[in-house]
């Protein structure tokens, strides 16, 4: 039964065979989903499920970060013709030699006068445009730059950036399209579809015959990486009682995946072998659909009570807890999927929360991916820099304690610390202290990456079961829009080496200030309907604003009383 829209707010559901989600039939012991999680859904079984789902997140990093190595820059210079000798009719020998630059080369003639052996060099032609290049293979055997001559001399560097942009556009599409399908057809179903797709597309990508084919594969990979990442994260939030710990550990696993993908790139310096190795990892996750089953909270939201009870019975057995025979688990609002992404903007409180959360998603993504993509511009070895940046992300497990102080405080201060780290980079850059620049990048990335995890948690806590993946999908989509812009911002390094960090710092500052308005969701039950999400957890407002509003209302009531008198 659809909810009524009254005065811009969602009204409660009408009467049905459920009263606040509880069954009207007798002979059953009723227990809420939240209480059932505490009694029968917390233990070793949930730990196993968490590990299995975290492995999916672990492997999605291969698609997110892998392109850093596939499209890595290799030092290069013009490939010039071999030097040649030419002898004229007077038996004077002239040697044609070539001097190479990055994008051009010069042709010179060198000859002797045949008398006192003086050597003369004459420029025959200068600044000849290159049509082929020689690439340094000391770090990578082959990247798409060296295979298809995609370098800065012929506009190829912009094409490499374009493929990053297309991947993020694909992620954007996946967040919107597949999130809606996940809310309609289930988390496990979406995980299966996404993992099969990432396996197949990844293998095809490793055999790409040209750059346009690879770019299309990257677009498709982005779509299904979004499906797997969001469905897996929401599944975790719906079965783990301590969402803060689960969410932050999920982020730690992501960073560990970043370390591993760097190691794989180190092991396979040929981009095709690297891409194939990353794709084959998704073979491990195909059995998940049958091993894990569907999210019990989603099953209850669809009215599939018996299947949800099967989950709790299995959980109780593995956790060694006795499960009563006549037990009914209920959601406070037991209702199928409500609307679509536009439903998140229909009512005042939801609209404000959605706009604020969208800003935070967009901002955290620009800064996070910007620092990642800018790693190639840092001094030193690309592998060492990546190892350091990814290891710093592993330290975000400290956020498990940090986020317990409050979601709003944690997110706001993490943005502001990230801003501070970006702000000092130009100082160290001006003095050429590369080590300090890398250190500041590590610290900034640590807090911004931790914020990614915290924003995931807050989004899952603000929105109901029936639209949770849709909300996460919208946020992730806007994050990928930010991620699509990030590589182009990293290119501003050509104008001024510190310019990317100045831009990232300003964005982090703005987001940190707006994050103060977030509602506090710490230790609050997850909403199960749009009605609950609209009427609970309003945006934070300061006491001064509250008092001002109360005074205005009081004056209005006095005027009304005077008029009626």
TrEMBL record:
Gene3D superfamilies: MFS general substrate transporter like domains (1.20.1250.20). It is a multi-pass membrane protein. The chain crosses the membrane at residues 47-70, 159-179, 191-209, 215-236, 248-268, 274-291, 355-375, 387-403, 410-429, 435-457, 469-489, 501-518. SUPFAM superfamilies: MFS general substrate transporter. GO terms for cellular component: membrane. Its main location: membrane. Coiled coil: none annotated. InterPro entries: MFS_dom (IPR020846), MFS_sugar_transport-like (IPR005828), MFS_trans_sf (IPR036259). This is Orct. The lineage of its organism: Eukaryota, Metazoa, Spiralia, Lophotrochozoa, Bryozoa.
């Amino acid at each position: 039964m659809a909810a009524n829209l009254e005065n811009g707010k969602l009204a409660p559901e009408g009467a049905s065979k459920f009263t606040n989600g509880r069954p009207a039939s007798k002979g059953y012991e009723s227990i809420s989903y939240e209480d059932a999680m505490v009694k029968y859904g917390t233990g070793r079984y949930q730990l196993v499920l968490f590990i299995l789902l975290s492995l999916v997140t672990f492997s999605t990093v291969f698609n997110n970060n892998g392109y850093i190595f596939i499209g890595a820059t290799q030092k290069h210079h013009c490939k010039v013709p071999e030097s040649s000798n030419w002898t004229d009719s007077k038996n004077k020998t002239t040697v044609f030699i070539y001097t190479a630059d990055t994008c051009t080369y010069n042709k010179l003639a060198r000859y002797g006068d045949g008398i006192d052996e003086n050597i003369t060099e004459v420029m025959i032609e200068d600044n000849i445009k290159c049509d082929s290049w020689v690439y340094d293979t000391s770090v990578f055997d082959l990247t798409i730059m060296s295979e298809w001559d995609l370098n800065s001399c012929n506009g190829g560097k912009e094409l490499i950036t374009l493929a990053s942009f297309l991947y993020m556009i694909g992620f954007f599409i996946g967040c919107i399209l597949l999130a809606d399908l996940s809310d309609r057809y289930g988390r496990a179903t979406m995980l299966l579809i996404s993992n099969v797709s990432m396996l197949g597309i990844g293998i095809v990508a490793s055999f790409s015959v040209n750059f346009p084919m690879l770019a299309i594969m990257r677009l498709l990979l982005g779509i299904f990486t979004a499906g797997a990442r969001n469905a897996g994260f929401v599944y975790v939030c719906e079965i783990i009682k301590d969402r803060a710990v689960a969410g932050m550990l999920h982020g730690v696993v992501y960073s560990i995946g970043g370390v591993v993908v760097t190691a794989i790139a180190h092991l396979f310096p040929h981009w095709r072998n690297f891409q194939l190795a990353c794709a084959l990892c998704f073979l491990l996750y195909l059995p998940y659909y049958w091993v894990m089953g569907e999210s019990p909270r989603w099953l209850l939201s669809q009215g599939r009570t018996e299947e949800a009870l099967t989950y709790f019975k299995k959980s109780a057995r593995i956790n060694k807890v006795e499960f009563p025979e006549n037990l009914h688990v209920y959601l406070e609002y037991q209702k199928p999927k409500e609307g679509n992404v536009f439903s998140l903007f229909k009512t005042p409180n939801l609209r404000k929360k959605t706009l604020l959360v969208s800003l935070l998603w967009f901002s955290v993504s620009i800064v996070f991916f910007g620092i990642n993509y800018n790693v190639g511009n840092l001094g030193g070895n690309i592998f060492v820099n990546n190892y350091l940046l990814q290891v710093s992300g592993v330290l975000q497990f400290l956020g498990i304690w940090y986020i317990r102080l409050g979601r709003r405080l944690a997110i706001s201060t993490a943005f502001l610390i990230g801003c501070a780290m970006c702000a000092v980079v130009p100082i160290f850059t001006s003095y050429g202290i590369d080590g300090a620049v890398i250190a500041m990048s590590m610290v900034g990335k640590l807090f911004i990456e931790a914020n990614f995890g915290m924003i995931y948690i807050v989004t899952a806590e603000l929105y109901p079961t029936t639209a949770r993946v849709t909300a996460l999908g919208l946020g992730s989509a806007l994050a990928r829009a930010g991620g699509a812009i990030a590589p182009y911002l990293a290119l501003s390094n050509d104008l001024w080496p510190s310019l990317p960090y100045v831009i990232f710092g300003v964005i982090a500052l703005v987001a940190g200030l707006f994050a103060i308005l977030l509602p506090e969701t710490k230790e609050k039950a997850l909403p199960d309907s749009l009605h609950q999400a609209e009427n609970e957890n309003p945006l934070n407002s300061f006491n001064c604003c509250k008092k001002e509003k109360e005074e205005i209302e009081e004056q209005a009531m006095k005027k009304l009383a005077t008029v009626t008198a």
